[in-house]
Amino acid sequence: MITLKAEARDIATKLDGLRKAGRIPAVFYGKKEPSTPISINTVDFLKVWKQAGESSVVVLDTPEGEKESLIHDIDFDPVKGTPRHADFYVFEKGHKVEVEVPLEFEGVAPAIKDLGGSLVKVVHALRIEAMPKDLPHDIKIDITPLVDFSSQILAKDIVMPHGVTLLEKPEEVIALVSAPREEKEEEAAPVDLESIEVEKKGKDPADAEAMAGEGSDGTTEKAE
Predict the structure, then answer these.
(1) DSSP letters along 59-109, please?
(2) Mind listing the pLDDT tens digit for each residue in 15-73?
(3) How sure is the predictor about 195, in pLDDT bands with cuts at 50, 70 and 90?
(4) What are φ and ψ of residue 146, in 5° steps?
(5) Which terminus of the chain, N or C, has fewer Cβ atoms within 10 Å?
């Protein structure tokens, strides 16, 4: 199991100073475990969180002894994105726990490779129940059964690891493949012939008659 060293924390200690010292304020609690403030090394916590996520057991090595727990909640700095606080849920030994486990999609779907479709992940995590020792880090979903656009992977189709019980509805849709969008050709707007001004070829008879009565200097000739 993954172990994380934890130190007792005085609630009177200023949290900003604790964080500047490279530690994260945290707390652990459970049904039969009182809420206890602790602090953990920031670097160590990030390594454990990357490895365990929120579904694998983390053994807290505390001054009160080892506590088997799950990372229950993390508060992140909205600007820096770094963890500011962490909650650990200590479960009762010998009892099953309910958690959400992330899904990991793998394989090649014929509906994507051959038909040009796109994978639609309807569900990203599944609610399961298991003994702490049997909790998986994630659940693998094989998408090769998605052979066409009518194919679906349902919750009941997923093979659960040993000792794990699925708590989702059996008919819950997990993934499918959507058909590619057809690009419609833009239709040319109809031409309004009446709105087009046609250039006249030659001279207007009226204009020609007017010009005939003018001299080369632009004056009008008079008959004698």
Answers:
(1) EEEETTEEEEEEEEEEEE-TTT--EEEEEEEEPPTT--EEEEEEEEEES--
(2) 999 999 999 999 999 988 999 999 999 999 999 999 988 888 999 999 989 999 999 99
(3) low
(4) -80, 85
(5) C
Q: What is 98-178's CATH topology?
A: RNA Polymerase Alpha Subunit; Chain A, domain 2 (2.170.120)
Distance between CA atoms of residues 221 and 224, nearest Å: 9
Top-tier CATH class for 2-92: mainly beta
Tell me the average pLDDT across 140-163. Answer: 95
Q: Is the pLDDT of residue 92 over 90?
A: no
pLDDT at 182: 72
For position 93, what pLDDT does the model report? 83
Contact present, 104 and 136 (Cβ < 8 Å): no
Look at residue 13 in the predicted model and tell me its pLDDT: 87
Question: In angstroms, rounded to a whole number, what is the distance separating the alpha carbons of residues 2 and 57?
Answer: 7
Instruction: Give me 7's structure tokens.
Output: 């130190």
Going by their DSSP bridges, the two strands 152-154 and 173-178 should be labelled as antiparallel
Helix (H) or strand (E) holding 36: strand 33-41
- Give ranges for CATH 2.40.240.10 in the chain: 2-92
d(CA 44, CA 42): 6
Integer Cα distance of 97 and 131 in angstroms: 6
DSSP H or E stretch at residue 195: none
